[in-house]
Each structure stands twice: as C-alpha cells, then as structure tokens.
What does this fold into?
Amino acid sequence: MADSFVPLTRGNGFSLNLQFESEGREAFNNLAAGGKVMHPLEQVFWGEYNFSDVRKT
It folds into this structure.
C-alpha cells in the first residue's frame, strides 16, 4: 500500500468546508475541469461529502 502514495509537493494543498452538497458539487466540478481526479466526490460514512486529489499539470 505504501507504494501507492505519490510524493508530497508542499504548498499546493488546500481544504474546503462548505455547508451544502450543491456547493460541494459545484466546487468539485470546477476544480476537476481539465484535471485528473484521484478521489472523486462521494458521501462518507459520517454523512458529509468529501473529495481529494484533483491534479492539474
């Protein structure tokens, strides 16, 4: 499993906390446009929606 991680590039990470699912979907769609989605937007077990790793080159 450890070999599936990619090197961390400092300075290019961020976090969004949005109140509504519609805001999350809009943010995800805008960030994903023209990028490579590694972990898509999905509902997690505690009820929130989460996504990570949208990469753009």
Observations:
- The chain has one domain: 2-55.
- The chain has a mean pLDDT of 76.
